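Cross-check.
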Amino acid sequence: MDASPSFSTNGNNNTIPVMDLQKPDFSNLVHHWCRPARASSHDYADRFIPNRAATNMDLAQGLLTIPRKEDSTVGISPSREAYRKLLVDTLLQGRTRIFKFRNQPRTPKRSFLDLPPAQPIKKQRRIPHHPEESLDVQDIICNRQLNLLDWGSNNILAVAVKDTVYLWNATTKSVSELVTVDDPITSVSWDLDCRRIAIGLNNSHVQLYDPATNKMIRTLQGNDQDVLVGSLAWNNYLLTTGSADGLIINNDVRIRSPIVSTYDNHSDGICGLKWSPSGQYLASGGADKLVHIWDISKSDPLHRINDHTASVRALAWCPFQSNLLASGGGKTDESIKFWNASTGACLKSVNTGSEVSGLLWNKSERELVSSHGRTKNQLVLWKYPSMAKMAELIDHLSPVLYLAQSPDGCQLASASKDETLKIWRTSEKLTNKTTSRTSFVVGPCNMYSSIR
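Predicted model, tokenized:
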């Protein structure tokens, strides 16, 4: 039946025609490109259970009940099987389970028990400012060209007082007399293995003694003039002597005629001699304000250094840098200078404020010890290379003239114009002993020490 127009009436009795139009159905034209409409909610059961009306239940039952061969490869080409295995290995990476049905465990909070063990705290270094031992050395000669103190590798300290050499055993604290000679002793030095001890005299002679028997082994004759031998330095079997006339002599103590070479480049007395740890270089300091560095294989000095403005007595080779030399100047100089022995260049210069009478490197730390004259008459411990003062050891009443170091590097010995010899400990090894006095000469009263 065809649709016909209808009429409605409003309040004014006017009749308004109303058309009852039907929308055309285009679904059959566009179903191939329009997305199907979402199924309404009444097509599903409760709790989103899908409608199983279109499910083939017989097929599903068969798939669930019929056993399947997992490793069956029937109908699968070798290339496809290889691709399948490669795909499984790549995606699963050896895992047999794809899904995880448990929560990932929480990462526990870091406990202090899990922290790495702390490094042990290094003990703060304590350097005593008072000597461990104080010994009287009466009548010790006070001369800045002499070297009357030497500490051997056998832990025995040799001290020359006038015409006598005394041996102080640092282990047993005992004192013995080595020898008394006719002339004043001007220098003393142990050889490296302490089988011999050299004694320089004021008549250009050097005597070698056996400390085990206290007997003289031989005498080394210097030049023809009667001049004092104020400096001695060992280099294995080679004994180098320096005299007041500026002559340096190298003596081979194994042969009958010991003099093997001489150096004559200083115009004034030799104040200090030191061989480098390698035995290749010799440093000499003189009253002529010069420092010479010699090569053992050459007759002329390798370097001539004239930067100091006073006599140079303090010389020390660095134990951890073979070509580093430290030198100290006298009264009008008051400086410590560091030299590159290879090039002769001055690396650093430090003004100490007083004359430098001795220099020693610490054997286990990067430190340097210097001894001084007025006004403090002190020993100073320096940190290298900053040259910051670590400690000042003040106890002497007069300028410190002689300085020596124990073989383990833990102790220092200093002798002064005040006729005292003091033993200082600069390492962390501390003892409960107070400053004591040891007697060199046994007399009716041993309450004080004395060397006569």
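The longest helix spans residues 78-92. The longest strand covers residues 215-221. Passed to J.P. for a second look.
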